Amino acid sequence: MSNAHPSRAPLIVLEAAIAQMRARHEQGDLRDELAVTGLSVLRLASRAYARGAFPPSEARHLCQGLLALAEALPANPDDRREPREVRA
Asked: Positive or negative CA dihedral for 74, 75, 76, 77?
């Protein structure tokens, strides 16, 4: 019997969230600490999904939450008192 774990195709919503967070960080629209932690969490979620340990619905909720946090927090750490307006 093999120790290989089942592998699924990448989930598009996770890949899109990773790409969006990278792009925002490169443009300077994302705090460094949020970029590092957010991308780490998304990569781990992608691995967990590929192994079958993370359901797609939870991955979608995670992506929505992290992207909403990235949108709400100001990019400049000195602006912590004034969160950005969240666009609906």
From this structure: positive
Q: What are phi and psi of 18, to 5 degrees?
A: -60, -45
How far apart are alpha carbons 42 and 20 in whole angstroms?
11
pTM of the model: 0.77
Mean pLDDT on 62-67: 95
Residue 9's pLDDT band, with cuts at 50, 70 and 90, is confident
CB 54 within 8 A of CB 79: no
Task: List all residues 6 or more positions away from 43 whose beta carbon is below 8 Å from its beta carbon.
Answer: 18
Three-class DSSP category at 41: helix
Residue 46 one-letter amino acid: S
What's the chain's Rg over C-alpha atoms?
A: 15
Confidence of residue 74 (pLDDT cuts 50, 70, 90): confident
User: Rounded to the nearest 5°, which phi and psi values hold at 11?
Assistant: -85, 125
